[in-house]
Amino acid sequence: xxxxxxxxxxxxxxxxxxxxxxxxxxxxxxxxxxxxxxxxxxxxxxxxxxxxxxxxxxxxxxxxxxxxxxxxxxxxxxxxxxxxxxxxxxxxxxxxxxxxxxxxxxxxxxxxxxxxxxxxxxxxxxxxxxxxxxxxxxxxxxxxxxxxxxxxxxxxxxxxxxxxxxxxxxxxxxxxxxxxxxxxxxx
Length: 187
What we know:
Layout: H1 5-13, H2 17-39, H3 42-59, H4 70-89, H5 109-127, H6 131-142, H7 147-154, H8 158-186
């Protein structure tokens, strides 16, 4: 049976190495993926992830749940580190990349080529969204965060996140149909 985060957090607050390792193991993949999709560089994402967990250990004695999931608290730390990093470097924090790997087993070359073209078109369409829309779509569908977590991380209301997600998906749909509509008009 999987021990709840609350029980592990209490042990980790007492600096129990096993509990700290358990929190790290449970949350590493999500935090790393969140950071990697934004910095696009493995070593930078690893460094930032390490900093998130060091900050977690440092801040854990003061952590209080207050109705917020522990993972949301970690994502807030990661988000703040990204903001600090981009403020120092002057770069835009939301970057999309064609380096997103297709982790499905490799199969039919024609299907792989079509998937590659579909991914290229999707990334091209994503780049046409506003930075805020890009961030919400990435957090929702790449990081698999729920609307409430995104709202807490971006300091917006859940309704605003729903609305932004809806507008972004409608825009993506429209952007993805444009080439087909152009071709249909030519025929």
